[in-house]
Amino acid sequence: MSALSKAFVVLVSFLSVLLVALVVPFVAQTEDLNAQLTAERNRASLAEQKASSAQSEIGIIQSDLTSQIQGAQAQVQSLTSALSKKDAELASALRDLASVRQDLVASNASLEGVAATAQTANELLKDNTEQLTELRDDLLDATKRQIELTDALQEVQAEREALSRSVRQLRESLAARGQRVAELEQRLASLPEAAVQEAFATETTATPVPTTPIFGRVTAVDTESGEVLVQLSVGTNDGVLPNMEFMVHRGENYLGTVKISVADPAESAGVTTITVGDIGVGDLVFAGEL
Predict the structure, then answer these.
(1) How many CB atoms lie within 10 A of CB 263?
(2) How many C-beta atoms lie closer than 10 Å to residue 77's C-beta?
(3) What DSSP state is assigned to residue 274?
(4) How many CA atoms lie less than 13 Å away from 70 in the CB half-sphere?
(5) pLDDT in tens, 177-198
(6) CA angle at 274 for the pair 270 and 277, rounded to the nearest 5°
(7) Across residues 146-173, what is the average pLDDT?
(8) In Å, how far from its chain's centre is CA 224?
(9) Contact 219, 232 (CB under 8 A)
């Protein structure tokens, strides 16, 4: 074999090894590319399906939007019509407002006159209020005075009723005394006339009776020589006179009779002519007819 043949064989062997080294990676890479291509095709198919589904949804959405737009257009037309009516109403309201403003100007002028009248009325009201306050104060004082007088009248009426009861008891006592006097007169009739004239030779003093009732109280009591001396809270300023007789009572109980001996303007004093109970300071006295 020639050297050229040997060289050719070596070259062929080298190229075969080199070709194998190149073909194997190429084949492997080709299989990888085929797998990737298949995967990409699958992805593309899935993407087309999703795109188709999305296109369907877009169609539905476009249909809904078309319906909504049509409804909105109808609402816009309705709102436009309502706005036109509102514009007309606004124009009418503006005309009314202008009229009201004119009326308001006239009312303000009238209000100024009314304000002046109100100020005058307020001044009159202030004066009337002051007068009313004075009248209320006077009425309050009069009411208080009336209450005081009513209480005093009730006390006087209570004393009057008590005195009336005492007078009734005194009259009963006087009736008994009258019977006793009648008995004494009968006994005097049986006595000699000379003895009777001698007994009544001394002039007796008449007992004065007040024209209006006199009420008072016992201020002091003293016993001297068997006689009960009584001092009263009434005197000549009240109409008391010497020899005037006062009945003494405590509540409904008649205690006796006092005959006045001396009297000054504010007080008087006398002795008891009839005693049926113990007379004490504070007991009531009475003279006159009820």
Answers:
(1) 22
(2) 10
(3) E
(4) 6
(5) 557 656 666 766 666 665 555 5
(6) 100
(7) 68
(8) 68
(9) yes
